[in-house]
Amino acid sequence: xxxxxxxxxxxxxxxxxxxxxxxxxxxxxxxxxxxxxxxxxxxxxxxxxxxxxxxxxxxxxxxxxxxxxxxxxxxxxxxxxxxxxxxxxxxxxxxxxxxxxxxxxxxxxxxxxxxxxxxxxxxxxxxxxxxxxxxxxxxxxxxxxxxxxxxxxxxxxxxxxxxxxxxxxxxxxxx
Length: 175
Ligand code: 5GP
What we know:
Layout: E1 5-10, H1 12-29, E2 35-41, H2 45-54, E3 59-67, E4 76-79, E5 89-97, H3 101-111, E6 117-125, E7 138-142, E8 148-149, E9 165-168, H4 170-173
Parallel strand pairs: 2-3, 2-5, 5-6, 6-7
Antiparallel strand pairs: 1-9, 3-4, 8-9
Helix pairs in contact: 1-2
The chain binds guanosine-5'-monophosphate.
Residues 43, 69, 94-103, 147-149, 153-155 line the site of guanosine-5'-monophosphate (5GP).
């Protein structure tokens, strides 16, 4: 375990099982649909690549990148997806749903582009912290209200490449 990590919350093996479980559910639910998976950068990348490879359906992939949520709840889009989503059943792929402000903003923005539907899959959910009116259709696992890193999730752009989800020691971000 990395020296800055206090505790492992979700192991590599559990992460793999989650990706398989959600992919098989999505495969059933989206059969016959025009699936477009949209990963929310950068945190979702490892989950996105695992999940998408286990979905046994033809699908398109794309990525959206917004810069940090500000108090107004508005985010700055750095990398966008197509202006017209007509006919696509969009599935947004997130790393973690915390207050929900980021995903709510992206969800509302993409809803205006005429998709057939928009669903949400999140690897981690912190339901206790939710502010925005948004719910994930598929959840990997709930996590307690602690700052977690690894498998795509960062602190100050580091720790993304840890193969598990761990709780970061408070001493690291309270320095
Ligand atoms: P929300 O808008 O739902 O409050 O936050 C979503 C974003 O905040 C996530 O995509 C993630 O980048 C970041 N975030 C929220 N909680 C955590 C956490 O425990 N660890 C890390 N690394 N990022 C988090």
